[in-house]
Design brief:
heterodimer; A: 102 residues; mainly alpha; 76% helix; 0% strand; B: mainly alpha
Chain lengths: 102, 684
């Protein structure tokens, strides 16, 4: 059995769905961030798959590297935000942080 | 404007400056206010004397007229414009000296008399505005400005009579004076309007010139008489002539120097001055009415003066009587004599008032010393024997009394004599012999009541020994004005001939004005009249000395030697005495008629105001309130309801929509994903 683009896309879609599920369902902000990482990585898989099988060649890998860098930066910033949220509200439960509503 | 008139303008404005200075900054000068006022008037007097001196050496008159308002239209072929201006002729020059001199002496006298008064600076300020207004009357050359100053005189008189306005009698008297004067002024105003209607000018020259060319109001001599008499109405009010004489005795509530200035020498003389100014246009009929008015006034006032006990009231009625004399003199046609009596009377009557002020001042101090606040300081029955205590006051007062009684060698003798000769001439030409009879009767009465006052005040015994000891002569500043006025009461200031004034400077300079009335309506021509006066002069002189002597003798017999008991006489003639004592019941008569009628009209008007006008106004208010109530209900229920409903509806909508906005990122995300899926489903 040869592994084709479709397999990669399926894995990527599953990973993306897990990510979305995590982002939507988790109450803990850290978990949400983890979900976002999953989504980003699913995108990376897509880039690489298209790099290998599609017409993207090296650009796909380049984009993936950018995404990794972006993810690192995002993690740093997001974690800083989460830290600040914790400092302010003494919780990282996103359900309880509905401050903007009022 | 020629330099002489500029000086005259300065004479007019100096007292005004004094008024402005004292009314605005008077409090700051403290007790120096009087000295400032007196200094202004002293300067004024010097200027007036200068004007008088230069005036007497020249012919004609100084006149300055300018157009105040030009309507640029023609009425009766005469341009319609209002000319005003000032003028100095011999009459004006004499009046300037009289007014400034008396005013200056009163300023001096008041320094001591009003010392320590609570409104000292206000008093001097008011004297200033009074002098200004009075000078204005004599300096104008037209009826318009004269009317303005006429009213200003009324106002300042009101202020001065009401100087002690805490006293109800004083504030009442000031109101009475003002209102009674207004009655006369109304006539004056109508008279001015008649003249204006016809001639479209109010200057004396313009009016008399027009009448001289044969133009008379509405082509009727009756209208000319009416115009003259209506203008005379102003004089009736100001000069306290019958029937408007009632205000003058009440005006004695003012400070005594004020009485001397206003109610003896100047303001009341303004009416006589007005008649003298209007003299050229007075018809024979008008002069007849004027003569009778004067005679009736002279008699009524003299009869009342006999029984009065208040020293100032006696002088007040004697003033009314003498003013009647002057008006009678002008009315019979004795122009120069009437004016001369105005001048001589101004001097000795001001003197009498100031002397009485001196006596009242001394009595007041003595009573104050005794802590006696019940005895009336002005009642002659409480005086007596003051001769040795107050020699200056006594001797000057004796001179004034001799002058007013018409004793030879005095100024009063000269002028009174000429008036009486005039009345004799008048009766010769017209046959109205009642006028000279009243004239001589009043001369006798005057001598009697004036000496009664003098004897009761200064001679005999003083009742209260202790009080007598406390009476002292007034200070120098009060006696000097008396001496000046006493000197002026001698004959040589007016004529070098002690028995006839007709060749003195006064008669030379104060010539009869040219009468411009059409011959058909005119009184006896001046030349004939003067000629007849000369014929009657000796007769008048003998008779006048006779009746005066009789009056004086009777006064001495009754009150000094007490050969006739005044009390017994009073008892026999009780009804007459009561009648005279109550001043012929004029006040009661006016209260019952004019005042009551006015009150009735006022009540009706008040009712009309209260019931009808207020009813209409209140009804309108009620209606407006009703409409506004309805409008308010509509506003709050309908308009507000709609607005509130919309707002409520929007709120309701917002409330339901608000639930969508949970504030949770995850919810939004779900929605976003669902939306994405829907879009994908649609396009795939």
């Amino acid at each position: 059995m040869t592994i084709t683009l479709t397999h990669f896309l399926i894995v990527s879609a599953i990973l993306f769905s897990f990510g979305i599920y995590a982002v939507i369902s988790r109450r803990n902000a850290i978990m949400v961030l983890m979900g976002i990482e999953l989504i980003l990585n699913s995108a990376n898989i897509n880039f690489l798959a298209f790099s290998r099988f599609g017409g993207m060649n090296i650009e796909g890998q380049m984009a993936a590297v950018f995404v990794i860098i972006l993810a690192a930066a995002e993690a740093a910033v997001a974690l800083a935000i989460v830290l600040n949220i914790y400092k302010r509200f003494h919780t990282v439960n996103v359900d309880e942080i509905s401050f903007l509503k009022d | 404007m020629i330099p002489e008139l500029k000086i005259a303008l300065a004479i007019l404005l100096l007292p005004l400056a004094s008024f402005v200075l004292l009314i605005f900054f008077g409090k700051r000068f403290m007790d120096k206010a009087g000295h400032i006022g007196a200094a202004f008037l002293g300067l004024d007097l010097i200027l007036a004397l200068f004007t008088f001196g230069s005036r007497m050496g020249t012919e004609g008159k100084w006149d300055f007229t300018f157009t105040w308002i030009d309507f640029h239209t023609m009425v009766n072929n005469v341009p319609l414009k209002i000319d005003i201006g000032m003028m100095v002729d011999n009459l004006t020059a004499v009046m300037l000296v009289v007014v400034t001199l008396i005013s200056f002496l009163v300023h001096l006298f008041s320094l001591a008399y009003m010392k320590g008064d609570i409104r000292y600076s206000r008093y001097y300020a008011n004297l200033g505005i009074f002098t200004f207004s009075m000078l204005g009357i004599v300096l104008t050359n037209n009826y318009l400005l004269m009317y303005v100053f006429w009213e200003l005189v009324g106002l300042s008189s009101y202020l001065l009579i009401g100087h002690w306005y805490e006293k109800k009698s004083a504030s009442d008297a000031s109101k009475k004076a003002f209102i009674v004067n207004r009655v006369g002024d109304l006539g004056f105003f109508i008279g001015i309007m008649i003249v204006w209607m016809q001639f479209s000018t109010l200057t004396f020259d313009g009016i008399f010139g027009a009448i001289g060319t044969g133009v008379i109001p509405f082509d009727s001599n009756t209208w000319l008489t009416a115009a003259g008499l209506l203008i005379f109405c102003g004089a009736v009010g100001k000069s306290a002539q019958f029937p408007l004489h009632v205000w003058l005795p009440d005006a004695m509530e003012g400070p005594t120097p004020v009485s001397a200035l206003i109610h003896a020498a100047t303001m009341v003389a303004a009416g006589v001055y007005l008649v003298a100014r209007t003299f050229p246009m007075l018809t024979a009929d008008a002069l007849m009415v004027i003569a009778y008015t004067g005679a009736i006034t002279a008699f009524i006032a003299a009869s009342i003066a006999i029984v009065q006990n208040d020293i100032k009231k006696i002088l007040a009625y004697s003033t009314v009587s003498q003013l009647g004399y002057m008006v009678m003199g002008l009315g019979v046609g004795a122009y120069s004599a009437g004016v001369m009596h105005l001048v001589t009377h101004a001097a000795f009557k001001a003197g009498l008032f100031l002397a009485s002020g001196s006596v009242i001042h001394a009595m007041h101090n003595a009573l104050h010393h005794q802590h006696d606040h019940h005895t009336d300081a002005q009642d002659v029955r409480n005086m007596g024997g003051l001769k040795s205590k107050m020699p200056f006051t006594f001797w000057t007062m004796l001179i004034f009394t001799l002058a007013i009684s018409g004793v030879p060698l005095t100024s009063g003798f000269l002028s009174k004599d000429e008036i009486l000769a005039g009345t004799l001439a008048f009766s010769h030409f017209t046959g109205h012999s009642i006028i000279p009879i009243i004239g001589f009767l009043v001369a006798g009465l005057t001598a009697f009541y004036m000496f009664r006052m003098l004897i009761l005040t200064f001679m005999g015994e003083h009742q209260d020994k202790q009080r007598y000891d406390h009476v002292h002569e007034s200070p120098f500043v009060m006696t000097v004005p008396l001496m000046v006025l006493a000197a002026l009461s001698f004959f040589f200031f007016f004529s070098l001939n002690p028995i006839s004034a007709s060749h003195g400077w006064f008669f030379e300079k104060m010539t009869y004005p040219t009468v411009v009335v059409p011959a058909a309506a005119a009184a006896t021509p001046t030349e004939e009249f003067v000629e007849e006066v000369h014929h009657q002069h000796t007769m008048a002189m003998v008779l006048s000395v006779g009746v005066s002597g009789l009056g004086i003798l009777l006064a001495f017999v009754t009150y000094f030697w007490k050969k006739i008991s005044a009390d017994a006489f009073e008892k026999t003639l009780k009804p007459l005495h009561t009648f005279l004592y109550n001043k012929w019941y004029f006040d009661e008569l006016y209260d019952a008629t004019a005042v009551a009628a006015m009150m009735g009209i006022a009540k009706v008007l008040s009712w009309f105001d209260g019931a009808i006008v207020d009813g209409i106004v209140n009804g309108a208010g009620w209606l407006a309130k009703l409409v506004s109530n309805i409008s308010s209900k509509f506003d709050s229920y309908v308009v507000d309801g709609a607005v509130n409903f919309i707002a409520y509806f929007a709120g309701l909508l917002g409330l339901s929509l608000r639930k969508v906005q949970t504030g949770k990122v995850q919810t939004y995300m779900i929605l976003a994903i669902i939306g994405l899926m829907v879009l994908m489903a649609m396009y795939m």
